[in-house]
Amino acid sequence: MEVFMRHLLSPLDFSVKELDELFDTASDIAANPKKYSKVCEGKKLATLFYEPSTRTRLSFEAAMLNLGGSVLGFSEASSSSASKGESVSDTIRIISCYADICAMRHSKEGAPLVASIHSGIPVINAGDGGHQHPTQTFTDLMTIRTLKGRLDNLTIGLCGDLKFGRTVHSLINSLARYSNIKFVLISPKELRVPDYIRDDVLNANNIEYEEVENLESAMPELDILYMTRIQRERFFNEEEYMRMKGFYILDNEKMKSAKPDMLVLHPLPRVNEISVEVDNDSRAAYFKQAQFGVYVRMALIMKLLEVEKPC
């Protein structure tokens, strides 16, 4: 009998109920880390990162090591057999002989999907081009749930690169499933959300949203401000990137008009879009967000490996 294998390719692969259970486990991990220190003993995580990454890759590695497992893999395409022309499907077939689960980041949209079709182990999409970044989205949702106490009845500002920002696309897709959500989409015209997000997610689900270019005017109504960097690697034209990169900079002056309990999130790394002076503001949650990412990925690895939650 064929055994069903679970992968994570999109944030919508998990139901709202499953997300609640995942976040409950992640919260328990945060409160009782020692309880989970050996639950994945003898298990191996392969990190297949065809694109550079610091936070996501190390977060996955820390997650598996915290669970008592081990890690192997590569951190850029040039150090893998991809540099020799090996296909993703062949690579994952080989990796399936070495590891129990893998996290893959790739510049091509759909590469983790291709891998999942040919894989003998669970595949986690750790970012594919400008498409999806589900574990970052799970991290964002847990941060909001933990610090705001809810995932509904929120006005969320998304600022910066909304066209190529896979974290933005994934977050919109996920939050559209909760009630009374409003999005304020803050970007230059050239970097607005793609039509498929506007039409297939926002309009199709009757989600309230507005598109604006001015950050200052949007600040007073926001419960969450999700800042993103302008991504050099997504631009074909260096001159266009240089023109866009300084479009939005959040500083203490702009924070004065925000709600006292508004949260500032950022998937990181930042360049100059959040001034370092904002780091000392109690509403700056992006470093807590990074810590929550480890707990979420620990819970996810356990879920996909079907490891029982310890008593």
TrEMBL record:
Domain of life: Bacteria
UniProtKB keywords: Pyrimidine biosynthesis, Transferase
GO process annotations (BP): 'de novo' pyrimidine nucleobase biosynthetic process; 'de novo' UMP biosynthetic process; amino acid metabolic process
Domain Aspartate/ornithine carbamoyltransferase Asp/Orn-binding: 153-302
Binding of carbamoyl phosphate, residues: R55, T56, R105, H133, Q136, L268, P269
InterPro entries, per database record: Asp/Orn_carbamoyltranf_P-bd, Asp/Orn_carbamoylTrfase, Asp/Orn_carbamoylTrfase_sf, Asp_carbamoyltransf, Asp_carbamoyltransf_Asp/Orn-bd
Pathway participation: Pyrimidine metabolism; UMP biosynthesis via de novo pathway; (S)-dihydroorotate from bicarbonate: step 2/3
Span of domain Aspartate/ornithine carbamoyltransferase carbamoyl-P binding: 6-145
NCBIfam families: asp_carb_tr, PRK00856.1
UniProt function note: Catalyzes the condensation of carbamoyl phosphate and aspartate to form carbamoyl aspartate and inorganic phosphate, the committed step in the de novo pyrimidine nucleotide biosynthesis pathway.
Sequence similarity: Belongs to the aspartate/ornithine carbamoyltransferase superfamily. ATCase family.
Official protein name in the record: Aspartate carbamoyltransferase
